[in-house]
Amino acid sequence: MDKTLHIIGGGMAGSEAAWQAANMGVPVVIHEMRPKVETFAHRTGDLAEMVCSNSFRSDDDEQNAVGLLHWEMRAANGLIMHTADKHRLPAGGALAVDRDPFAQDVTATLRNHPLVTIDYGEISELPTDGHWIIATGPLTSEGLGQAIAKETGKEALAFFDAIAPIVYADSIDMSKAWMQSRYDKGDTEEERTAYLNCPMDRDQYEAFIDALLAADKTEFHDGETAGYFDGCLPIEVMAERGRETLRHGPMKPVGLTNPHQPDVKPWAVVQLRRDNALGTLFNIVGFQTKMKYGAQTAVFKMIPGLEDASFARLGGIHRNTFINSPTLLDNQMRLHSKPHIRFAGQITGVEGYVESAAMGLLAGRMAAAEILGQTPPPVPQDSAMGALIHHITGGAEAKTFQPMNVNFGLFRPVDGLKGGRRGRKDRYKAYTDRAKAAWTDWLDHVKAPETA
Q1: Domain chopping of the chain, boundaries
Q2: Is 286 annotated as a binding residue?
Q3: 177: annotated binding-site residue?
Q4: Would the pTM of this model clear 0.85, i.e. be above it?
Q5: Does 242 appear as a known binding residue?
Q6: 93 labeled binding residue
Q7: What average pLDDT does the chain have?
Q8: Which CATH architecture best describes the domain 5-156+323-444?
Q9: Is 423 annotated as a binding residue?
């Protein structure tokens, strides 16, 4: 039997899976339809292109579940985390990435690997034999999506994911805006001033909410319903849930002091995060939207400091596709009906760049081990990796399965620890200590790839 691993999709999951498998000695072919077949969200043919936020979120590996996932991927010599660290941007306690150099670097690294081949072209049918990983992500092509739906006997699940706008830095009025991370978080001055803040008083906020609610929105096609993922709600949907929702969400004013008016507490604050290493682009944090382009320009220019803003990219909305993994996949991420096919990344129902790459890491290792005749031990459920894979392959309720970020709610409780908010710090530290020990032990029992 052919010992080559074929991976459909060169996003975060596909790129990481290829790296892990190739470094275990398995030949890999990445099948990427871009740039021959484009999507509305992608701009290039690069692997691991970031199409939404440029943030990998919190990098705190002791008190945050996604930070713990960063730690586990670094411990496994993951390509995505190694490259993200090389192209890191100031973002307080978060890990933000200079998106274009990041994708170019991932592409070059895989292209130069002696065991990796990149085949540009669309695959629209499920393969009948060989070793395969489908990592096509939320923008799976129509042909392959139909083939998956036909095989599983179920309609593909879908939710709508919105893209935040990006503003040119030199068009922001710094006589109204200022640079500060919330609570001055960060170890360096650059980190403590990583975010650009635009303050609103109460009247400005109320007018902004009125404009959001009245703005023209993107219409859905017949038969489509808006089942949004709560971690990426459009701002106008949040506003519809209550006029104070944004002020207690992405526009919360806590932990910030306006140096232009230090004695005046803002009623709300819009934050922007640097989007490239040059500092010429900033994305509006948490401002995913389905407003039409004309409405976006008018509404966002109501924000103090953005009255004359120029936009490098306006927001958008797209349909994301994922499978009902708890019913369709085994604990090795193989399709029950066709076990020569594994799934990885967002299409499995994990949400976020890091989670997608993590599932690619596991799928790549599992597939390579199978090809090499190895039987690695189960991924420990007490690790962040294990908590995620357990959730998508059986831990979640199939009837209500929805995309999920990694979070401590997926972890098994640690006995003897206090519950509630007061015990949270000790509890989270116990989770991360236990996870690191479990993950390190697992890595000691599997063949680890060489450093990126």
Answers
A1: 5-156+323-444, 163-318
A2: no
A3: no
A4: no
A5: no
A6: no
A7: 91
A8: 3-Layer(bba) Sandwich (3.50)
A9: no
